[in-house]
Amino acid sequence: MNAASYLQLDRVIHERGRLAIMSLLAATTELPFTGIRDALEMTDGNVTTHLRTLQEAGYVAVTKSFQKGRPHTTVALTVTGRKAFQHHVDLLAQIVERARSGPSFEARVMSGGRLRPQS
Amino acid sequence: MNAASYLQLDRVIHERGRLAIMSLLAATTELPFTGIRDALEMTDGNVTTHLRTLQEAGYVAVTKSFQKGRPHTTVALTVTGRKAFQHHVDLLAQIVERARSGPSFEARVMSGGRLRPQS
DNA sequence: TCCGTCCACTTTGCAATACAAAGTAACTTC
DNA sequence: GAAGTTACTTTGTATTGCAAAGTGGACGGA
């Protein structure tokens, strides 16, 4: 429960756009490329690059096919992705809680001297 | 309660490092530069630049002085900053909630067609 | 009193990346 | 068969997160 637990925040997930995508995917099972783009009002290019980043991290599975001669891409969370997102959400929940509890123990701990662990 | 409400996420606050700083400040009243650096295990330069960004956004007030011949910098949230952070936290709370509720209405709404508002 | 070191920052340089405009490719409509 | 639409991907740019190096004042030893 260190204040520096923020370091655990996964940058791949934390970025605005990707947080939104992960959030959306977590609430469903699978979404088409266009569904993501339209729901989040993102540009096509933006969706593509974020999906690539998420895919490279192993957080989403991207399935490409042709339907009626058109490319059709669907995206789903992987098990890893769902776990990572869950963990991220837990960290955010901690931040939310601490922020809502207002000035607390940290005020007493922090105002004093150095706390740097064991550099 | 749109899925695209993620667009409201303030980039100045959302960035990992600054979210941590804001979070820390929200829990106290005022902190020294070194307190932030040590609590979050950040490099000096990192703290400086994030503080500048937050200051330029009007979210924190930075006070510089000399104490015992050493520079001494303290940081506190402004009223604007506290409000903005609160709003941000509320948005995060929404994401957390939705993520925890699992597959829900969005699954039904989204899997179908286009929803792009009125482009 | 000069030298080196420490502390508390700030400046600078680089590598990463978010974003949209432009490009591609297959189909459909006029 | 030309023009438009859909579903993406590639490319260029401008931003920015980050740490290494720099600054300046205080202090301790020789």
Describe the structure.
2 copies of one chain form a homodimer. Chain A has helices at residues 11-14, 16-26, 33-40, 44-56, 79-101, 105-110, and strands at residues 31-32, 60-67, 70-77. With 119 residues, chain A is α+β, with helices and mostly antiparallel strands. In chain A, strand 2 and strand 3 form a beta hairpin. The two termini of chain A are 19 Å apart. The interface between A and B is large, with 47 and 48 residues.
Largest sheet of chain A, in brief, is: 3 strands, antiparallel
Task: Report the helical percentage of chain A.
Answer: 40-55%
Which spans of chain A have pLDDT < 50 for at least 5 consecutive residues?
Answer: 104-119
- For the secondary structure, the number of strands of chain A is 3
- Name the quaternary structure: homodimer
**Physical arrangement of strands within the biggest beta sheet of chain A:** 1-3-2
Counting DSSP H or I runs of 4 or more residues, the number of helices of chain A is: 6
Largest interface: A-B, 47 and 48 residues
Named at the architecture level, the CATH assignment of chain A is: Orthogonal Bundle
> Which superfamily, in CATH terms, is the homologous superfamily of chain A?
Winged helix-like DNA-binding domain superfamily/Winged helix DNA-binding domain
The CATH topology of chain A corresponds to Arc Repressor Mutant, subunit A
3D shape of chain A: elongated
Strand content of chain A is 15-25%
